[in-house]
């Protein structure tokens, strides 16, 4: 292939950005996840004449995976994942291992010429769900926080499990030998080392963030570098880079409210949203473009062999997940106690609450039938599966071709398409049909209780400050602030009374509140227009306009996106 000019690369990147933006716009309008539509667009492009972009697994695993995982970990709840740790580990470690083994033995028994190691390799690649599509749909349709936590926690941890299993399978398939004790030792060392590196990197980030917290740009620079640093350090000492990135992100995200300023958090959040949008769009578009390369290698296989291999891969992925969920949720209570307790439905949010009685905790920690169906359908696969399977070597240590490499690539591609497109496009209707929705009234009640508590803490602090000060000006300022806080507290308490009287799980509509939101937005719009008139008339500089606009932007950002949401 000839040298591609810089202009051609720029044109292709701009075209890809345009496609991602348009597909995202269409997806928002029709209510479907962009992650499921982009691969379809990629396939359509791949079938047209012209160049395609080949998926480079090293680039995906080094430059794309770390920031996506780190961003997801920053937005996750360390406390919520810890409360549901047993289920998260069950899905992200045990189920991934079982999926790889079942597919491996299925290939060894039913696919002509396939080896156990090659089957485990494709099983490890196809095993880890990519939660992007499921989370996008789940948040839009109001999936309960417990299920969102499980989907997110599973997606954060399963990649490390799958990639470690894949490396062990490749080692066996290339002729270096295989033993269960050594494989288990390698897995435990990689996991423990990855956790240790993640903790150390998070500690280093915390030390850096404190002196830099006053400069959002420097905080952003450290934040963008953190996932790559964690990944590279872990990979250099041959432990799990993926797990290092996830652990670092969870700890940094948990400590961020104390270690960074408000301005830094606002800017960092905006930067990571943009990174997520572009990287996710590119990788899902890239998935569809791999179709020609994957199909070209199938000419040497019988149709029956291809059908059997695909049936085993897709069948195990689709059937083993619900079976495993049903089995683990049907365990006796004594075994649940031995495995470790989890939080209840009341603990799905991040607030500290008094735990209920133990029998109720045991009953609520399990998934019911509708939740099992939702978790089953959330197991969409994505770019990590394709990136993992493309890392298979071309030859073994003896120089022979890697066994059934092209067939393994095709099976993984089909699994990704079936789950990402099939399940991704139907997940929202299934969730709606199941009637699974978060209890918005309880969530709003908790938020307003926390708001009230924070205002009461501020009032108590003002009382202490007033006792220490004797200056008349200070007393006047304190009295003004106290009146403002009391008015705010009265508003929160009034909203709480309304929420406590509500019978349904839907937020009660408050015409007065919606009218207040409308009036405030209109007022902010009028302020902006007047500032623009001043600028256009030469009475206000552009620097002054930007400063005043930023004040209005922050004020508008405090308003909820949905008028009825409090």
UniProtKB/TrEMBL annotation:
**GO biological process, alphabetically ordered:** regulation of intracellular pH; sodium ion import across plasma membrane
* Signal sequence, start to end: none
One GO MF term attached to the UniProt entry: sodium:proton antiporter activity
The protein's matches in InterPro entries, at most eight in alphabetical order, are given as: Cation/H_exchanger_CPA1, Cation/H_exchanger_CPA1_bac, Cation/H_exchanger_TM
Ordered alphabetically, the record's keywords are: Antiport, Cell membrane, Ion transport, Membrane, Sodium, Sodium transport, Transmembrane, Transmembrane helix, Transport
Compartments reported by the entry: Cell membrane
Question: What family does the Swiss-Prot or TrEMBL record give for this protein?
Answer: Belongs to the monovalent cation:proton antiporter 1 (CPA1) transporter (TC 2.A.36) family.
Q: Which PANTHER family match?
A: SODIUM/HYDROGEN EXCHANGER (PTHR10110), SODIUM_HYDROGEN EXCHANGER 7 (PTHR10110:SF86)
- The protein here is known as Na+/H+ antiporter
Organism of origin is Phytohabitans flavus
Top-down, what is the taxonomic lineage of the species of origin? Bacteria, Bacillati, Actinomycetota, Actinomycetes, Micromonosporales
